[in-house]
């Protein structure tokens, strides 16, 4: 009997046993790959190993191999990193052909690669005579030729690895950096490269290991000259003919180096930003305990609670009106005075994000003729438009602290480091997260990160601020805190702010105007109060919690598009397309057909009951009218015996219906 807790198998509990039909071939493959390596270990003369590896010829070849492989790595980084970025980020004709050329050296026989290099750079090759006649450079049978051969066969490993890492890096980080004023080269150096560092390291390690072991292209193109082109792999080839035991020892050295590289990588061939170790983020709930900041005995304020005495918002340094003519998928004209906040709402696919990206100059789907203040910025690239963007998740740069994130736009605009950090710290203090300046984004809660993202955008001195659902990822308590903070600082912003939102509370509490989009067109642009009273979009009406039924006006009301007729007190002229809007609390529910004042009475069936604060919302479907929602008290629901599938009658007075002409 096995003692309790003792595992007798290498499999984890609950792990299914692999089928023999797959396990046996897999084990055979492992044995096939491992047996040659075992052969080297078994046949190595361990007593002579040190003597073989320290012989003058081996030491000389090792030094040359290291020289050639590191030069090849340097050339691969210099040329391969931009090439990988081009393949990952730019669409151009012939891209598939270029990628095939990158992969070709990986599948081409090395000797064929050497012949190709000889025909290109040899003394009788395409470029060889010109290189020799103009610069006095002769590549074949020279150490530089060995470097060229190693680079040719090894660089694809770097390009493919880095392209995969760049493919895993979401472009919004680079786009956000551009919106903060960073040029494309600065974005590449300060955002892209640091975030794909694992991919670069993995690719560089593979490239160096491949260059160190290069044989076929080197011997064909550069020859096998001791001290000049005879690297370790070439020496192994010669030793096999004269000293097989020494060849085995040198082979073991190369094997050990290759295995060390692979073990160090631990399978991360394409290290993307997601491969980085993440610190657990603090909880979203405000912390009521006092926590000391790093290196300080002072207590830290609650995680997301607004400070009791936050410094006032910074005064705006200028005032910039907005005029934009947007064409393409989204077509509209937008004018706004300084300090105006516009909430952009509409269903998915309405063109909200396309509008923002058109203003940023980041999408080919739409084009914006954009004027900010007195300056036409239409022809300017994104980093020179002074349009700051806050994506839904903030897109904080994970390799920078909160303070460095906030100072990024200022540094990109040429502000000295000390001044940028001073101003950034002031913005963090204003938004109540100044004590978190030393933390990385992974160490911030959702509310903290969103405040840092807002501070970063405001610190960049924008003339137009665009926020893409900035509070959507936050819980209700945190959202209320951040909404209050946002409202406070937008009041002092001298430009125009556009906020994409699906939250009616945000639209009403933050915006001076509400722009309703549908199918890329402006359906309504009015004050929050007017949009709330008379929404012209069924989607907006439902977002506000109302029943909304489109139809065509008749003398008595509306012929509804979904079937049925609605009697209304003040319908528009007959034939007018219109929208009927009914508050859920105006719909009455009955178990028997009601008698009396309701002009609109339909039979239906309860399909869903949900809570809304202290009341219940009941979805009723009917064959004689569109689906509708009624709002009643829990007591009324209990008295009616409501449950899913229960038949009911709905009643609606004609005077409780608002009809808006479309």
State the low-pLDDT regions, or none.
1-9, 269-281, 283-316
Gyration radius, to the nearest Å?
A: 35 Å
User: Order of strands across the widest beta sheet?
Assistant: 8-9-10-5-11-12
Tell me, briefly, the overall form.
elongated
> DSSP strand (E) fraction?
15-25%
Report helical residue fraction.
40-55%
Class by alpha and beta content: alpha+beta
Which sheet architecture does the biggest sheet show? Answer: 6 strands, mixed
With helices defined by DSSP (H or I, 4 residues minimum), what is the helix count? 22
What is the averaged pLDDT score? 83
- This entry's quaternary arrangement is single chain
The total strand number stands at 22
Determine the N-to-C terminus distance: 81 Å
Structure description:
The chain has 22 helices and 22 strands. Strand 19 and strand 20 (628-632) form a beta hairpin. Helix 1 packs across helix 13, helix 7 packs antiparallel against helix 10 (197-212) and helix 8 packs antiparallel against helix 9 (184-195). The chain has 662 residues and is α+β, with helices and mostly antiparallel strands. The protein starts with 19 loop residues before the first helix and ends with a strand.
